[in-house]
Design brief:
Layout (H helix, E strand, L loop, with lengths): L1 H48 L3 H37 L5 H32 L2 H25 L5
Helix pairs in contact: 2-3
Length: 158
């Protein structure tokens, strides 16, 4: 009797572990499918531009520069947003500190916008007018997609 119970428990444990492994594998596969779908789409967009090798290098350099500069600013923005949340949760908050942090956050967001505009200007110097038309259409689509994603996650553009 005890052997049957132990066998049943063992078999149930194995079945539960197998189910967990299969569900994890399927979840990862779905996530990989999403990531994988994004890369080919970006490659297709770049193919439509028909960039020369020199342009490809220049575009990669411009993108790397923007990403490097923007990463630092994004981190500072998150830090300031967290500080604002902390201040808002305090009973006796310092209004001057809150105002200063809000001003710093606004300045950082403005700086990020300026970096984006500088990047677009750099891209404009690299691409031909025909390529730039294609780039602008794709950029608008990317922005719409980002806004939609933010709305789906409940984030704001503040």
């Amino acid at each position: 009797m005890k052997k049957n119970i132990l066998r049943s428990i063992g078999l149930l444990t194995i079945l539960l572990m197998a189910a967990g492994i299969f569900s994890l594998a399927s979840a990862q596969q779905g996530h990989a499918r999403f990531r994988g779908g994004e890369r080919p789409m970006m490659a297709q967009q770049m193919d439509k531009l028909k960039l020369t090798e020199v342009q490809q290098k220049q575009m990669a350099d411009a993108k790397a520069k923007l990403e490097t500069e923007a990463l630092h600013i994004h981190n500072l923005i998150k830090e300031k947003q967290a500080h604002i949340k902390t201040l808002l949760d305090m009973e006796n908050r310092d209004a001057n500190d809150l105002d200063k942090t809000i001003d710093m956050l606004s300045n950082l967001k403005g700086e990020l916008m300026k970096k984006g505009i500088a990047h677009r200007d750099a891209v404009k110097k690299i691409l031909t007018p025909e390529q730039m038309k294609i780039w602008d259409v794709k950029a608008k689509q990317r922005m719409q997609g980002m806004r939609h994603g933010m709305q789906m996650r409940g984030e704001t553009e503040d």
